[in-house]
Amino acid sequence: MTRLAIDGGTPVRTAGWPAWPVWEEADRVRLGQVLESAEWGGYNPIVREFEQAFAASVGVPHAISAPNGSLTLQAALQVLGVGPGDEVVVPPYTFIATAFCVTQLGARPVFADVDAATLNLSADAFRAAITDRTKAVIPVHFAGLPADMDAIGAVAADAGIPVIEDAAHAHGSSWRGQRVGSIGAMASFSFQASKNMTSGEGGVCTTADDDLAERLWSVGNLGRVRDGQWYEHPHLGTNYRMSGWAAAVLMGQLERLDAQVDRRMAAARYLSDRLGPGLTPVAWDRRADRHSFHLYCLRYDAAAFGGLSRDDFVAALTAEGVPASGGYPMSLSRQPVFAPYDPADCPVSDAVCDEIVWFTQKLLLADDHDLDDIVEAVAKIRSAVEG
Length: 387
Hints:
Elements (H helix, E strand, L loop, with lengths): L24 H13 L7 H14 L3 E5 L2 H11 L7 E4 L6 H7 L4 E4 L11 H7 L4 E4 L11 H11 L4 E3 L7 E2 L2 E2 L6 E5 L12 E5 L2 H11 L23 H29 L6 E3 L13 E6 L9 H10 L27 H9 E5 L7 H19 L1
Parallel strand pairs: 2-3, 2-4, 5-8
Antiparallel strand pairs: 1-9, 6-7, 8-9, 10-11, 11-12
């Protein structure tokens, strides 16, 4: 009888997985240049160099950096004038920052359920959530899969509602050949430690709109304007500047991004062909011709594993040397902190929280030989519970 590692057996894998973050000697050189420049803050020229390079990679003229992605989301709402009494539509299956950025401005997050196939915001649910107080919508490109920007964009255009893309998971993803970050009025990217591009902490907001770009820059630079005097502050703002250190690290991260996205997509296809019954990959909408796979998400069917619960399956898999997670324990609409906003029920998201298994992006940087250990660990658990 197969003895699982969680029960004292020998794990399938004891070796580590690809290191994250990835760095090279060129990163050390850039950091040394920042050190020796004696300009370590947001006015080091490398900050602007990174912003220009990132904007070019997305296909827009403007990228405005910040200390983290939560602040870029908040800044995007702020320049749209979102404030008390306003509503912003957000999905319930996402990291809490997507909704917190709304509350930070005194507005109300309105949760609209996700699509059962893709885990992204449902255009129909978005349409049903619109009121005369709706000031914006924030579709999340969850796990790196772009949301249905055709359908969401059409609903938003009909209602005159700006679209802010939450692209925290989606560096390098694209929708029908157009990079995410260039589709909505603005987009927010995160460079937090787990993200597919990271500087430990960091964020950037992209836009093709010249006026929005100037307002974003002003909000993050204490209300200054680019051609104004140093102590002239015609607008309300604060300090959202990225440091030279972060920008130096991100230059190398950007250079490696496309090759890493290619590898993650190949790894996801490899696993999807081999994991077997009971683990069904979340649908990959083929209009998303590039999918960054910040997460590789699978629907778990306990019946295919002898009735083993999702959480017990995750624990068993992790014990076999394959780190996995059940993801969010509840929808944001169920989080007690949002109870005062009287959130609507989101049954699809609630079901997803109970059935999804996550693998993180760094596992997908492994070569096919190492990925076979994931396949073997899953097969071992299936065999153990069957027999």
